[in-house]
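Quick one - first record:
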Amino acid sequence: MKLIHLSIKNITSFKGMHEIDFAFLNEENLFAITGQTGTGKSSILTAISLALYGKNYKKTLSSNDFVSLGASDAYAKLIFKHNQEIYTAIWEIKLKKKDLSPIKGATPKRHLAKNDVLLDCTAAQLLNLSFEQFTKTVILNQGEFSKFLTSTFSERRNILEKLHGCEQISIMGKFLAAQIKDLESQMATTQSFIDNTKGYTKEEIDQFQQIIQSSQKRLQTYEDILNLLFKQQTLTKDLKQTLVKYCESTQNLKRREDEHTQALAIFQKANTHLCQLTETLNTQKKSYQNLAPQLQQAIKYQQIIKSITSQIKVLEQQAQALNQHIDEKQSRQTYLLTKIKNNDELLLLQKTKDPGLIDPPINLHQVHDLLNQLQTQTNEHLLLEQSAQINQAQIQRIEAKISEARQTLQLENNLLGNHTASLNSLGLEAHTQKHQTLLSKYHTSLENHKKLEALTLKKQINTSNLNHQASELKSLNQQANMIRENLQMQLAQLKENTLLNAIVICRHESNQKHQCLVCDRLLDTKLEIPSSSYTLNQTLIEKQQADLNTLTENIIREEELGKRLRLDLELAEHEFTKLTAEHIPPDIIKSELSELEKIIQKIESIKNQILQSNSKIESISGYLKKEQVELSNLEHIKHNNTILLKSKTDSINLLKNKISQDYPRYHILLSDAFELFKSDQTLLNYHTQVTQENIVLKDELGTIQTDLQASLQQKTSCLCQISDLQLENCENIKQLSVLTNESDPEQTLIKLQKELSTLEQTHALQLQETREKERSKDQLLEKIKNLQHDQKDLKLLQLELITHLKKFGIHSTQIDIEQASHSLFETYQNTYQKILQIDIEKMSLELPTIIEMFINESLLPLITSIKNSIHDFNVSLIEAKLKIQNHLENEKLLARYQNEYQRIQRNHLLNLDLFKVIGVSDFRNFVNSFIEKKLLIYTNHELKKLYLGRYEITTVSGTNGNEFFILDHYHNGQLRKIHTLSGGEIFLVSLAMALSLAEMSKGQTDIESFFIDEGFGNLDQDSIDDALNVLSKIKGQGKQIGIISHVRELTGKIAINIDLFKSPQGDSSIKIVYN
């Protein structure tokens, strides 16, 4: 077996996933696992043994104990090579669910696979190597062999037994001693039982036989009487029930007859009402048939009248609309004629008033352009003057702002100096450091507060769990008590049923022999045997016993859970008290923090004010520069405006001269010229507009005259149609008055239909109700007949029951009854005769009471008395039989115990002889010396390979047993004591012995990987070099060697180191280092 790759997750201090790839060794088969104490060097060997065997090689702990603290799962995976095949061994365990709740009873799982295919075998079966062999062959315990070489004979024996497993011999000796002691105890117990077992004498057995015979005779007599009494009880109960039923039937018959009489009267009344309703319905139908045709014809005429009336209204509305239209057109015609006449007069007047303007017309567009130019130049001149004024005002305002800004700048510089002095006096750094300290304390206090809350919650949960567990335990105890009580009752019932079954068996045997087993008399008839046996399910009792055991185990488990919960509660209380003593409330620290934060805020406020002052100073300085630049620009603009004003004045004078020469009509003030121009333009436009309007009005006048003629013709046609429709409507009204006088014949017809429908529905309901009453009357009559028939049947049944009672009568002269039952039997006879004399024809309510008194006061007490007598006889009979049976069983049991005593005695002698051989120390010494000799042969063979035949170990007899010596062939075969060897030489010899034990223990398995876990701590530099030389020779044989050590002088000379480091949090990590 050779290691290839190891993966571990959450094993001891290795939290998370870690991997070691042994393939990095290549040709270098020697490597070291190094690190400080506690970094997890041995945990790597633990992971290998867990993956292969599910056990720890060094400690007797559960595999679950190697899971990292707080981890929800753990994992160990080993890939190794065996017989040229690659295998994978996995060990894994899951302790928590996805919601981090613990899994109860979590157990680890192991898998073994070849090429990703699961195998149905264990690593021990695959490697042919047990766990004990694995710990001796793969993990070499060289340190124990160092002790072994330098120890005395007795100490050497104990070490060798521990290393090779020979301690089983000592265990066998102890086992034989305990076995002998146990057999001696069994012999004493068996002998005590044989001495205490006694039987009955022959006279006592004969007396038991006589009791059995007399009891059987009396039992037969009493059972016959009991059977007759049971039959009488059944018959009297049946008679009582028939009497009660007869009385109830009589009462029901009377009640049904009264109900029938009432139902008959109700039916007759309903039938009379139905006849009256039918006559009314027929009359109403005839009246409806006469009036309906006239009303329907009248409805048609009424609909025609309404239609014609609506048509007349529509025509009248059309005529009215035409009248309005004609009036509008006539008024519009008058308006147009007047308008045309006025326009003609106005055009003539304008032409007369100003003929030069209109004919020929002046070029107003050219005049308008010149006036606009003059207006524009004038406006621009005014704007330039205004701009010059505004410019002067802005210059004055900016000069004032510059003066004000300089004053503000001086004030801000003074304020900045005051703020800087205040900040230096408060001391920002000291307050900040104090704030950080208090903040750390506050966070610590919050964490402690959360822990206290968690502990409080945990205490509450534990208290709740304890209460729930107490109630659960109480419930389990109650269930157990109920099962115990039920079990006791069933065991008592089983005992009683055993007695009753014994009686049944006795009767069965008597029937087979035709002779009573109690009194030996011959039987004329067979004894009656009950059809059902008195049995109780033994399996049910055993199941209840098993349930009781399960409940007991649950109670014990719940009590243990309660102890654990109470322990957890106490631990939580202790931790809560400890935290409370050290805890400072967060509110106190928070109040100090708030005060300090106020001071810091004040300091920060001053700093902000300083920053604001600096910002204002910079802003004001920039503002001053900007205003000065703007002042310079305004002065330049003032100079340019002066030049523009002079140019605009020259242009205005030039335009005025041109207007005066070309158009003297408009050479006036500019505003008056514009008014005159607008008036001339308006006059020309109005003249053109009036001319066009006259043309449009004349066209509209012709259209209106044509439309007016067409409207007059439509009006005449509408008036003719209205006259015709009014005549037709008068004729229809006359026909309607002839058919009916009703104002609304349609509503009259609907009313008649509703009244007829209502009357028909009432008639149908009355008819259904009458039929129901008739059906109810007939049903009552049928029930009366059935009741009368039942009464006849009950009378016949009563006669039959009384006849059977007479047949099963009992007389005192026929039986022999004990003195205690005589008074009960006399009472029974008197009441029984009264029952037989019942007169069926004279039925009364007292008869059931008399029969009930006979059953309760006479029959049942007598049955109980006879049952008690039968039980007493059965008890006497069974006790006698059981005594005889116990006597026979005791004789058999005594013989069996005597045989058992002889068997135990033989086993005791055999174990005693075996103990004389194995139990003494001579045999143990013999076995150890044999193993020691074999171990020396293998060790010398290893030394020969490692030291080229220089050293050889031999033994020499001494006063305290054999002692080890070294034979040095390089010095003429001199003998040296082991103690004379150096530390390095003892290490090398013990290493050879460890390799020899591995070779002896491996069996047929080829081991290619092993680890040396201890023994390097006391070596000097030369010894370390010698050890490395020996290990190099071993690795040259193809062995993969892992050195586990924290000695840097040794590991630093090994080419490949697996270094283990531990973080401040306690987590280990792996790093491959190449030297």
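second record:
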Amino acid sequence: MLSFFKNLWDSMDAEKQKRLLAEKLEEEQRHLDTEIEKEENEKIKKGENFNMQNVLRSINAPQNGTLSSNDADKCFQRLGVITSLKSNHGTIDHAIFFEIEAAGGLASELKVGCHVKYLAYQQVHSDHIKVVQINEVSELFWDESMPTTEKIEQQIAELRNEKPTFFNTHQRNILGLIMERKPSAIVVDTEHKLMNINLDTIEIDFIPQAGDRVYICCNVQSDEHFVNRQGEILQEVSVHPARLLKQEKCEVRRLNTDWGVLNNDCYFTLDVVPNACKLDVGDIVLADLIECERDPYIWRCVKLSLLERKSPQVTTPSKAGTTSSKAGTTSNGEIPSDMNSRKESNHAITVSDDARCIFSSTFQTKRIEMVIKNNIERNMRVLSIDFLGRRRDSQVKLVDPEHDNTAFEIPGHSSRALVFEVESKFYGESREFFVIKFEKFRVKRSISVVVCETEVEAEAALAQSNHSTINGLNGGVQNLRQRSRYYANQVWSNKGEVIPGVGLATKRRFLSLRIAYYEVPERLRNAYLTSTSRQEMIDSVENMFPCLKEELNIKNYTIRFQTLVFLEEIEYFVNFRNYDRERAHFTRDGEFLSLTIENLSERRPSLVIGDTVRAINPWSNDNDKRSYDGVIHKVLFNRILLKFNEGFQSKYNGEDFRLEFYYSRFSFRKQHFAVNRIIKHLGEPFLFPSRVHTREEPQLQIELNSDDNLMLQDKHYPWFNQMLNPIQKRAIRNILRGEAKNMPYVIFGPPGTGKTMTLVETMLQLIKLIPSSRLLIGTPSNGSADLIATRLIESKQLQPGDFVRLVSQNQIEKELVPEHLMPYCATVDMAADGTCDDSMIVTESGMKLRCQMKYLGRHRMTISTCTTLGNFLQMGFPTGHFTHVLIDESGQCTEPEVIVPLCLVSQTRGQVILAGDPHQLPAIVINRFATDRGLSISLLERILGRTPYLRDVMRFPDTSGFDPRLVTKLLYNYRSLPSILNVYSELFYDSELRPMVNEKSSREAEMLKKLDVLLPLSEKRPKSHGIFFYGTRSENKQESDSPSWFNPLEARNVFLMAIKLYRQGIQPENIGIITPYLKQVKHLRTLFIEADIAMPKIGSVEEFQGQERDIILISTVRSSHKFINSDLRHSLGFVQSAKRMNVAISRARYLMFIFGNPHLLYLDHCWRSCIKYCVDNEAYLGCDLPDDFDSRPELKKDETILDQDVSK
């Protein structure tokens, strides 16, 4: 019996094994079939293993009476033989691929070997033929057997001489409704058919969604049979909204978790809201709307910008007794039923007015009394005294009664005193509120604490009227500006003979290419400088150049940017007038004439070597009206050294001259040249991309293996930097492949994510894997260029001959070139080859000066600022000489600056990489008019607003919504503790940044623990919380001759915090102090200098971009509501300036203190979020908070809080 069961079990096991084996073989067979099918498809698409050229020649052969042309799209009908057939596709004549859908109802009749008549379409300059429709099927082989290869080839040969019939084509717009949005396609319902459109093959200028009404621009067949010019659809070219309303003024009516409503008939998804712009119901926005069908909405918003925010109610300290409230009413305004009468309610209790305590320094103590008076016969019971928003750093505490939750009674017609102890803990003004809770109502009071250097100053500040003299000061500044413009125009208009000075080097007469002068048009100059009002100036300029009122496009690109650069130069000229002297003299200094200029190092714009000083003698008695230019050869601490014409220099004997200062225009001229050249050089697909154009073959057939290592032709290539994270590696892989043709690649690098590290690795891999490559690396500043050069040296992969760092003579003379970079540095001599002697000089440090074309441009890498790289434009390098242009910190460059080096890259073989962060500070543009019209918007930011570069999470869910062929967003943050990172990640980067600094075991976490003694006590706050807000209510000031602001009390608080950090062993170099106003920078520096204490780095936000410190102290300065509307309009300081705020709060590694007035900053949503984050984590200290942040006790439905006495 046992053997029987054993045999039965073995037979069942054998059957099971056979079945499993069969299933496995079947699965392997299916896999092999799939792979073979893929290979066949690739062969078909690539034109392998068949004579495609024979087919093309038969189609393109000239025919009598046909419409064929080699320089136009072709639509034709011809006969062919089915040579292969799969479930969803097949081939005709071994050469032409078709989808089964093209056969329509004839699909079931298709067989290998049968004849078909098909309609096809071929675009000009393309070998690809698209089968649009199979119209007829004729079966030549009636038996069931497969026709032999010989018979099929015989039929193909016979039909080869059949001539196709050609048709005309035209474009037609077809209206439709998007029924479904797939990741890479849309399904559109039209009157003709349901169209499945691949987003990779069309141009589209918005991110489509289901429900959108669109029109599809198609190429269609046309001949005498199509009377209505409809014809067969050959190819979809582009998709556009059926209707588009631009810049519509709308009101936010509703907000949900991930969508909202405008004007009741338009909806929007939150992905169209700009980062750091958090909307509230009631806000006014400018929106681009497209027609849709999503009941009840008929419009969808595709682009949105905040125009006007529905501001929260501004809370300002009020004087006691100036307002009154009705007592005895419930929260809905009704009189409580159990109160004796309205009269008793209003006169039952009287409480002293709000109190103020004034201190002349910190750590002083005072006691004050507030009296509660019972005005009626019966006893009144006080249930408790509750402080609103009570914090651990409170400066007020109740002394009598000892416990604020102790109930007590006040007999009829008697009083009870409340005794408070007030201690001054920090400078500025704060206000603390408390509520006296009775049985049926509450009374609210406050105590203001003012801490200044003297009581007189504090009293004066509190007694100051609402009408400040600042309005007059601003008016004076405005009048001064207008006078400076009139003066600038007068200087510009002066004509006369000018004797040039002696330059730094001999001017080269022979250049391979000479850049024009591009003088500012006189009519533009006059309109800008002589208009009596800003509005008059705007109207005049826009009437002259209507393109400034239009959106930027390929047609107005050149004239618009040229005008904006001219306007920037005019403002630069106006600012340069600050150096002019009505009467001054020179002193001799060796071979130079010296001119003393006070505060030269702090003046802006800076004087540089090569600028000129024009000496004019209006008091001369002779008829010599000539002027003399002196060229600046050296810029010292408070004086400049000049060389004039030899005759003037030798005869000068201390006479007085009127002096006018002039800058070198070469930088502006290079920008004008580039703006004029770039359209022809790189074209519309580069400047205004509307779809992804791909190369026929990638730049390199490189991939990442399972270990994220580079593989090229089955060979492993190591990373030079082993610390790269997976996203950085993917970015470099995407750049090396270079699949997109003539389109910039963007490395989107938020703060602390290793953008420069990624760029350096990219450079090294490019020159290693592409031996023919020659790279230009451009930056907005010399500091950025020095950093890249330093990182390349530290990689130890390059030698001095492999790359060159181009520098200017100004850097050399000012000794700004780092010593370790000197062997790699060179200056340019732009003379054409063979037109002058080689005058290159090699210094002891290794720097090469006056290098000509035969030396420069031959290195594998050339690193410099964008404008300095523009010197190569005049040196005659052939097209394609430079293969790659990489721009670091490209968000800090204006578009004309960036395109200067881009004019040197090849359109066909070249590649452009833009690295930067569009959410950090833009380029510095001093002309406000030009800023408002887009000059400060970088090419990086503008390109990221074009459709192929837009974030589309549905289409690219694994790459932060960006097409990996065009953009990589870096996400790993190596700078900040998570508590600091969370703030700017949520506000500006869609909460995608990933902290790599451990909040428990990192160096940053350990350092923060050591400073715990300085931080406010809290049991709730996490130990690793590193961001604190120090509320200060104080006065911001402005001097009569300057529009800049400063805040003495806030500066003092910052100074004292720095002293506390010093006492804990923190070194000055580990601290950074950031403030948006230069006056505050100077005031803070003065405090450190007067105290004779080591000074940390103190500077504006611009000075800290790209830098980081262990500890950051931020002084926001503004504290007055009087000019908040102006600040909101013009994004002054930190108010309504998201990019400025982002840079400021993303510099700290483990600790950041923000000093500011919460009553002002909370009007801005970003700051409100930041303050709330600190409050929620018990990381707020300082003055009282606005009402929005009060954690007040809950009211019962029959109670109300009274702001004033119940007797009033």
